[in-house]
Structures are given as C-alpha cells and as structure tokens.
Amino acid sequence: MDHARLADLLFPNVTRTPEDIEALYPPRQLPEGAKVTRFAPSPTGFVHFGGLFPTTIGERLAHQSGGVFYLRIEDTDAKREVEGAAEGLIRTLEHYGIHFDEGAVIGEDGKICDRGIYGPYRQSQRGPIYHVYAKQLVALGKAYPVFTTKEELEAMNAVDKKAEIKAKDWHEDQTAQREAMLRAREITLEEVEKNLAEGNPFVLRILADGDPEKKVPFTDLIKGKLEIPENDEDFVLLKSDGIPTYHFAHAVDDHLMGTTHVIRGEEWLPSLAKHIMLFRYLGFRMPKYMHIAQIMRLDENGNKKKLSKRDMGANMDDYSRMGYAPACVCEYIMTLLNSNYEEWHMQNPDKPYTDFPFNIKKMSNSGCLFDFDKLNDVSKNIISRMSAEEVTALVTAWAKEYDPAFGEQLARDPAFTQAIFAIGRGGKKPRKDLATWADAKPYMGFFFDPAQIDAYPEQFSIEDIKAALVGFLRSYDPADEMNAWFDKVKAVAREIGYADDMKAYKADPSAFRGSIADVSMFLRVAVTGKMNAPDLYTVMQILSKDETVRRVQSMIDRL
RNA sequence: GGCCCGUUGGUCAAGCGGUCAAGACGCUAGCCUCUCACGCUGGAAACAUGGGUUCGAUUCCCGUACGGGUCACCA
Length: 559
Description:
Elements: H1 3-10, H2 18-24, E1 36-39, H3 49-64, E2 68-71, H4 85-95, E3 102-106, E4 112-115, H5 127-139, E5 143-147, H6 150-158, H7 161-167, H8 170-185, H9 189-198, E6 202-206, E7 215-220, E8 224-229, E9 236-238, H10 246-256, E10 261-265, H11 272-282, E11 288-292, E12 295-298, E13 304-306, H12 316-322, H13 326-337, H14 341-347, E14 368-369, H15 372-384, H16 388-402, H17 404-412, H18 414-421, H19 440-444, H20 462-475, H21 482-495, E15 498-499, H22 502-507, E16 514-515, H23 516-528, H24 536-543, H25 545-558
Parallel strand pairs: 1-2, 2-3, 10-11, 12-14, 15-16
Antiparallel strand pairs: 3-4, 5-6, 6-9, 7-8, 12-13
Helix pairs in contact: 1-5, 1-9, 10-11, 13-15, 16-17, 16-18, 20-21, 20-23, 20-25, 23-25
The protein binds one RNA strand through helix 6, helix 7, helix 8, strand 8 and helix 10.
C-alpha cells in the first residue's frame, strides 16, 4: 500500500503540513509552573453541578499558578447541539465567578466570538486543521478509511446505538466487530478510488497497534499510578462528515492550544488508552491528566448513581431559582474538592475561597454524594456574616426575579427591610436563619403579611393565652427599654401563675401552670404568627406600636 | 459479559505499619440565655469481607463481595 498516495486520494485539498500548523501556535510565554487548563463543554444543555466541579479545579489551578484558563467549545456533534446552549453555559459560569482568559466569549452582539491567538475555539471551525493531521496519519500508515454507502449511513443514524449494543450479546458483538475491523484494514487503493469515484462517504479510523495484554504505566494526578491496557481498537478519528471525534480533537487541540493539565470526569478513564496512542502517533507530548470522581446521587433503591442532568440539584440554574448565593455554592464545592479546605476556612473565615491554596493532593478519589444539609450549613454561615445592607440587596434582587410580589414588599421601604435583616446580625454570634434567599419569606414575611399563623400547642388553655395577651396589652409601652419591657412580660407571667424565672420553673415545674418561655411564645405567635421568630422586642420595635397592638388584639379576638 | 476505578460513622472526610481511629454536616442530651435562635459541653454512630506479609495491620499484597464507570461515525 502506497500510504502517501492514499493520503492524497483522501485529502486532495489539504496542502499544508503539520509543521505549517505548528507555526501558527507558538509555545505560550508563561512563568515557570504556570498551568494551562480549559473548560471544554459540548453545547448540548446547561451547566450542571457535576460539570462545575472539574471547571472549578481548572480555573483554580490556572489562576493560582499564573497560567491561562480558556474555553473551547466542543461542537463536533451537530445532531445533539442545542441552540443557545453555549451562551447559556458561559453566562452561568460567569454567575459563579468563573472567568476565562481566552477562548470563546460572548461578544457585544451577544453572540459567541473568539478571543485569543490559539483559536479558533470552536471545534466546528477547526476542520482544516484536523485534516492536516489526519492526512499525516494516513501518510504514515497509521489511519485508514472505511467507506459506507449513504443508505447504510442513514440506517446507522436511525438506531439508538447504545440501546442496540446493550440488547446484544457482548461476546458475539465484539467478535463480529473485531472481524469487521480486521477486514476493513485490508482495503486496497483500487477500492478507495472506486468508492471515492462513487461519492461514498468514509470515516477515518486509526490503525491500532496495541496489545491489550500489555499494560502501559500511567500516572494520573488524582488516581495515582495506573496500569492501562494498550488500545487495540481502530476507533474513529474523522466521522463521515469530516468532523473529528472527541478523541482526535482532544489530541490536536490540547496540543496546539498548549493545555498542560486536562481535568475531566473519571468516565474518561477507559478512553485513556486511545489518547495515549493518539499522542504517540502524532508525536505530541501528553498533558498531565486529572480524572476526578463523579458526584453521585441516591436512586430509589438506595444505590449511588452518577448525578445526571435530570436530577434534583443538577442544573446550576436551579440553584439560582432556589435562592442559593453563588458564593455559597462555590464554597460548598471547595469543601468537596479539597479535604483541607474547611480547616483553612475556619482559620481564615473572612478570606474569599480564591485565597485558598488549592492542593491537588488533597482531592478525594472516590465519588461523593451531594448533600443539601451541608450546602445549607455552609450557606447559613456565609450569609450570617454578610451585612444587613448586603442581605437586603441580594434578597430583594432575588425576590424581584423569582417572587415579584414579595420583591415589591421588600423594595417598598428599604430602610424597614434592612432593619429587619439587621436583627441578630453582626457580632460574634450572628443568627443563622437564612440558607437561601427563598428562606427569607418564611423567616420574616410576617412583617409584611401576618396571614400565616401557627396554632398554639394544645397543652395550653385558651384562657391562659388570652389572659397573657390582655395583660401584655395593658402594660405595653414601646418606649420601654428592653429590660423594662421584659420585666413587664414577667409580671404578666406571674399574674397568670406562670414562672417568671426559668430556673425556678425547672426546679419544680409542677408548682407553675407554665413558664416565662411559654408566655413569650404566646406573644410571639400573636405578633409574628410563628413559633420561631427573631428577637421579639426588636420585632415589636420595627413593627410599631399600632401594628403590634393590632395584631395582639386580633389574636385575642379570634381565640 | 470484558476492561477500568472505587470501598473509614447516615453524609463529607482525616489517617499514609503501633492513634482511646480526628474534624465537619445531620441526629441527640444537657448547659447558657429574658423568649426563638446563636453559642458551649457531652452522646450515639465507621475502617465491606477472607486470606496472607509483619512482633503488630484501617494503613502493604492477593482473592471475594458490593458500588460506580466504560465498551458509538456522543462527548
């Protein structure tokens, strides 16, 4: 077989050589140790939690080392592409504070455009580049074409490949495939010419020289030392539309664009042998790899499953809707990514997570379960440290988008709203009431709308409650200092036979009808409608005397 | 089914041959407090399993089980 002749036959229009291409991609001028990483999504949907994981690592590694973090769009599968998905991906990442130094960006006109000299950054626009390398491989005898007729191609596209294979017997299928592969390798120049003349499309397959019985040692930055069986599968390099598969595009692009670290999910581990082979054939130096474990979820049988797109908590846009602040989500991700992050954060509570010295060695190598409880805790801590102004602004902004009626209430009197969010804020032990902005309404919505009223526990008599409320109204004076105010509440408690001192009550509960805590609860429910609410004295101050009295009176009336 | 990866409390996790096996979330008891919270002090709760190697294994090796991933002209 004359490989050079085959190459010319297959790629008559390719005149450039790999050297010509290399010249267009000069080595990056970066400081020693700088890492070049990338986010390389296929524009088929939204960013999901599992995807934000490797992205955050890439961003941290690049920016912490003075390197480059770029965005490359892997739009090699037109069938699956979703209109506008790429733009959505970029916007979501921006929302989470992930910025790209280079690559595909959203331009002035809202459309994707390139920024940087290592482009194009959309694989769909890199066809001619891939073809140069494809031609080279053919000329080297390391790749060969497999022709199909258009009818066969259509038939292939019509079936769900994955489902089809699953239904088959694995052994049988693999033997058949292997035989077909070996046969395809035997194609002659004459056959190629004939097919080309007939206009039949072809895929370009690699000619695999590996022996799976042999293992190649490989070091993954997270998994450690691995033994990879050599690849013996003639996988597809170029699809029949001339567009490369992931494998081929990965090798060519990451080489030309100077990627130093490839960070991807561990589902790529089984393909690693293919990539090792490709880089070898192409004469490229391999980047370093980090294969990270998947985020899992529990299925209905209690088994772990990879967190997939449809799952609760998968779509990052859902977090916005649920009212999670981006900073909180990022911090939660850091706690999952780096086992010593929490320790660092406890020592540096006020520093942003970007100050944390991210350490690859501290990364977990098994998949973790998504935990909303933990996210909420992280989130509560962060929000508790925000200022009242900040919380007011963020809650209001969130509500305007996701709960307009509530947003309007919050915005009507910003000073009033801010006074509410200032309760228990600041100081050493701030309240931790809010994990999400959506928590604001159940937490403090009663200031605006007292409609929702918790029922009093049944063990208390209506008479006691009424007596306490009436007693309170008789003596209430908003000019009282907090202590004076509470002394009056205590007096009311004594009047109706409730203990005004918790110690005395606990020493002998039977001596009293109830305690000051119960009386406080009677009042709290009357004023806020809730068993749980922030400091009652302050709540009354903010509500005003008229409103406080009105609410207590209305509770007395309905009892 | 072949191949690959993984396995410390319910969850996230320290550990890297000798520890009473950290810590965080959640759960829970009590304390503090003028009420709700916050906070504090405790508690229950774990090395999947069988063989080795070793004076000694959670830690090293092999097997087993279980879980995950992958086997497309998808990424």
